[in-house]
Design goal:
180 residues, seven-stranded antiparallel beta sheet
Length: 180
């Protein structure tokens, strides 16, 4: 459960920056101006900015998250890779690398249960479900998309919750209708 502890640590310790980036739409969903998405979080998410570095390149990971009670974590992660890191890669290659990186980062605690292609309009993604290796009443599910070489991960970690389907189905990019 190291991934779960790390994730909770990041959510709790990261400072809540740029809350002016997050706004509530007239339909009651939440949107991000900077990351360009809309999602039906079951409450107002907070924004944490995590500084990251690969080689000499620095970039920020924007983490929009909402924690409800114990083990109910909704999040959208957004990152815009530096061009030098992705200049010769296709969106499909970035999508598959993003999924493999996620899978490898949680492989000690979770097993892949399900994976299939998903789309929002013309943007292709991957829908996934991971189950914990230990007897924990929780799951980790989500979608990964690459749009204009920007990486999005929409996920839920926790116990079964009635808001999960609405959250997952509502995610879309600004100026698009609801996703799958």
């Amino acid at each position: 459960m190291r991934y779960l502890y790390f994730f909770l640590f990041v959510v709790l310790v990261s400072c809540n920056e740029g809350s002016e980036d997050i706004y509530r739409t007239t339909s009651g969903e939440y949107a991000s101006k900077k990351a360009g998405f809309v999602a039906k979080f079951p409450g107002e998410p907070s924004l944490s900015v995590i500084e990251n570095k690969l080689g000499y390149e620095k970039f920020d990971i924007l983490l929009y998250s909402l924690t409800l009670g114990n083990y109910k974590i909704y999040r959208v992660e957004y990152l815009d890779y530096p061009e030098s890191l992705i200049k010769n890669k296709t969106s499909e290659e970035l999508l598959n690398e993003g999924f493999e990186n996620l899978k490898n980062s949680i492989s000690d605690d979770f097993d892949l249960d399900f994976k299939e292609p998903v789309e929002i309009g013309e943007d292709k993604g991957i829908y996934f479900v991971f189950t914990p290796k230990e007897e924990v009443p929780a799951l980790f599910l989500g979608k990964i998309f690459v749009k204009n070489k920007k990486h999005y991960t929409v996920s839920y970690l926790g116990k079964t919750d009635g808001n999960v389907d609405a959250f997952m189905k509502s995610f879309r990019f600004l100026n698009q209708t609801s996703g799958n």
